[in-house]
Amino acid sequence: MPGVRRPSGERRSPAAAAFPADVLDHGALTQALQDAATRFGGIDVLEYSPGGSLESTPLTAPSGTGPSDVRWAMDVLLHGALAATRAVLSAMREAGAGTLLYTNGAGSVDPDPVLGNLNAAQAALRNWVLGLHKELAGTGVQAAHVAIGAWIGTGGPPGVPAAPAEEIASLY
């Protein structure tokens, strides 16, 4: 039975709560994670996987990608992950336990030319996570990256495989 074991041995499911923040606003993101940690007595798992719609996600082919195209993707995918991690990692290290899970598209390992700017940022995130995982060896804190080779939901770019969220959920 999922939930939290109380000192009495009783199991209770924690109440759900929302702590919304824009990943581009690192101060607000940090505050939201601090608020969640206060509310729940800490954060055991950070799952970072920002997403957007085609209307909100600029896409460029590799040859058409300029610095500003990659900057936007880096801000969302890498810089937001760095801010979120900084907000929770010291407490995880102090506790000697925790999981940092970062999810994005498979462009980090198998680039799709339709997603040139996203591929670069996804690869940067994956590389950073792999280094973080090695750094954290022996601390009780794990870092992992999951590359999903499908657009989650409907309305993805033409030619990119899609999968309903229910299929992706089983990966976790």
Automatic annotation (TrEMBL):
One of its GO terms (molecular function) is oxidoreductase activity. It comes from the Bacteria. Keywords: Oxidoreductase. Gene3D superfamilies: NAD(P)-binding Rossmann-like Domain. Belongs to the short-chain dehydrogenases/reductases (SDR) family. This is Uncharacterized protein. It comes from Streptomyces filamentosus.
